Amino acid sequence: MDLALLISSFSMQRDAARHSQQEALYRSLRDLLLDGRIAPGTRLASTRTLAGELGIARNSVVYAYERLAEEGFVVATRNGTMTLWDGRGQDNVRDKSRPHPIRLSDRVDGLGNPQAEPDRMSPFVPGLPSLDEFPVAQWRRCVERAWKRIKPAQLAYGPVEGLPELRRAVAAYIKVSRGVRCETDQIFITDGTQGSLELCARMLANAGEFGWLENPCYNGARTAFRSAGLCLVPIEVDDEGMAPREDQWRIHPPKLIYTTPSHQYPLGSLMSMQRRAALAEKARECGAWIIEDDYDSEFRHRGQPLPAIQGIHAEAPVCYLGTFSKTMFPALRLGFMVIPSIAVGPLSQTLRELVHRGHPADQLAMAEFIDSGLFARHLRTMRSLYTHRRGRLEAALARHLGTALKVRESSGGMHLSAELTVPLQDTEIARIGANQGLMLQPLSRYRVADGQTYNGFVLGYAGLTDRTMEKAVVQLAQLIEAHHPKADHAPI
Fold it and tell me: Would you state the torsion angle of the CA atoms of residues 135, 296, 167, 292, taken in this order, to the nearest 10 degrees?
């Protein structure tokens, strides 16, 4: 056994991580065995000898040897302590020039995002509510009362459908606010919209069937459909929302149709009532499911909200999705699905094998937050605030960018989409902006496939104060000015 090598490793472990002597010795021996620097069959020094060489207590050596023996690395024999590690994989550890290729499944091939995780609190990040205005004290009291009410049995896995208190509260709320036709047993609590999408894609369609997506589209829906093995069919969007052609119904009959009718993501258009009814009827005729993501429906800045597609007919083939990530806060990770009553039994049975539900305190607290009226009051406050902030953002963009950025018409939501009218690529401006701490979402990245092109940005404004908004818009204007000096917009 190479004592010099062990002493060096031991000193590094002890000094770098400030481990105890016994922990440092254990880690040193384990790493040397795993790396192949102690050969299989090597006789280790006696505990007394090694303790003397390292200047530590013999009990520390005994601890390290016993722990290695428990984990199968060494075994005590009549001739002394011998290593058991057989050295398999040592060549790959040593030879870094021949790494094993890593290949993910075909279902997720191409889904990777090479960009670093953005700073969620950066200006213009879409989907981020005004966290500074969230009533933390009121929410904390609801959570505290929930924990006082929780019984020991509720600390186990909860019902896969979610706690009845929250399901009942959600059903009562969306019946009034969104015109959804449902009973409590049709409500299923999920971990958010993305979790709902993945469940729908896995349970309602087979691999190889056609899944329709808006084009451009929320990337989470594309990810859910692709990972479920569906054949994606992009459907163009106009001022009235998703606009499928007759030939698309014939050539690519859908099994799943994903749509955001209340505030199309990312363009912001509102699906007309006529088109909602037509989509529901055509889906019924061809045996398709509509996945209605009621994105941003709570934050309509003008006009009356249209009822959900789900509410057009009691047994419409619609899975209605909602989330509290935008209305409350993202870290809550609570959402819900409303499914047709005929599917409740099969879905419940399947979910028992797919998910284990938890977070009982958060679910109970959310139920109280809704029932007490705090949720409705919070939404009214945020609706007024977001209307104000959208107006301020539009004014700031006009003031600093002139006609270089054209804002698309939209009646609500937490973001606006704006198209570049100067010859610059949104992805390139976003790349440069990221290096300066400005996280821009290029509109072109939401396109599902070739077809109509989009070149601009999705600009979230819900989390922007007047001060941070002005600063961010000036930074964006300077960025565009620097890379297109002759653009037709007002100077900074």
Answer: -170
pLDDT at residue 59 above 60?
A: yes
The identity of residue 400, as a single letter, is H
Between CA 394 and CA 271 the distance in angstroms is 23
Give the CATH number for residue 205. 3.40.640.10
pLDDT at 395 (0 to 100): 95
CA distances from 113 to 116, 117, 219, 445 (A): 8, 9, 11, 11
47 CB-near residues (< 8 Å, 6+ apart) = 58, 61, 62, 65
Nearest C-alpha neighbor of 427 from the set 392, 453, 393, 388: 453
CB 483 within 8 A of CB 150: no
Residue 51 domain-assigned (yes or no): yes
Q: What are phi and psi of 190, to 5 degrees?
A: -130, -175
CA distance 55 to 65: 16
Mean pLDDT comparison of 53-62, 330-339, 434-443, highest-scoring range: 330-339
Q: Number of structural domains, the chain?
A: 3
Structural domain range at position 221? 131-374
Does some domain include residue 106? Answer: no
Residue 371: burial class (beta carbons within 10 Å; 0-12, 13-18, 19+):
middle
Contact assessment for residue 366 and residue 334, using Cβ atoms and an 8 Å cutoff: yes
Q: Which of 271, 267, 295, 270 is nearest to 456 (CA)?
A: 267
The sheet with strand 335-338 has its strands ordered as 187-190, 335-338, 318-323, 289-293, 254-259, 210-215, 231-238, 241-242
pLDDT digits (tens, 9 = 90+) for 376-409: 999 999 999 999 999 999 999 999 998 899 999 8
Q: What is the pLDDT of residues 258-311, one digit of tens each?
A: 999 998 999 989 999 999 999 999 999 999 999 999 987 888 877 677 889 998
